[in-house]
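Marked as duplicate of an earlier ticket. Keeping the data here for the record.
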Amino acid sequence: MAIAHHLNIYYSQVNPPANLSVNSLEFSAHRLSAASVILSADSRQVYREFDIGTAKPSESDQQAVPHRLVDICEPTETLTVADYQQQAQGAIAQVHQAGNQFLLLVGGTGLYLNAIVKGLKIPKVAPCAELRSQLTQLGQSHCYDLLRQVDPQAIQRIHPNDQIRTLRALEVFYVTGQPISSQQGENPPHYPILYIGLACEAEALRSRIVTRTHQMVEAGFMDEVADLIRKYGADLPLLKTLGYAEMQQHLNGELSLAQAIDLTVQHTCQFAKRQRTWFRKEPSIQWFHADSSDLVAQVWAQVNRFIQSNDLLAKS
């Protein structure tokens, strides 16, 4: 929870939507304010047409509680962390100006979350299509090796298969001549923030991932991937991301459906483990067990304590 004049921000951090559901928390927002707004901090939900594989909020969910930073980009566009930060800060300002009292920042993309909560200072380097094209032709493995040479600190935060962030880090290096990791500082917002995380045991998390992956397939995930390939081509960077890459391999005949599902589960579990490691390093997160029968009550009790301890209602 944070306050900037009349703006209160409740900030919730969770593992990816494929792993843990935050709907019960998100849609209890009306307990705080009928004018609550949810701000997405998911790096793929910003893209239109990438719906099932990103666990994007449904239209009915978005009608129930207003969402921002969902479906703001075309699949062929590039949204950098700096772009996200600018748009998110603009959305927060709009919420404030509209007189709304509470805003929830929800998601699992660490850099997006830190861009707002910690006020990351991000290199303002515009995407360079020609450079990206040249790097893409080298292949992800080669590009990752290049990044390892020029910015070994960056690869500690970037997975070897993460083409989008690998290209961005190399782009910043070649344009500025300096590693992206050396150009990132912090300028935290002046308001206090309640930082909440959901966690569960590894086996329970894996079970959730298996269930979620099968639900995605049953909901038409393969059709979504096939349609995206038809419209934008198989080389679209977003189609190389978690879930989409494995389904594309199935559609290409490289994997059976069962193999694609198993591989998606495996990669999602690996991603969740890395993400858990990332967030465990943040001492200000207050963790709650996702399988608690009274999870919502626990969280909102903490929210109310935070409101009272910071005298937020008196200031709003």
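See parent ticket for discussion. The longest strand covers residues 7-13.
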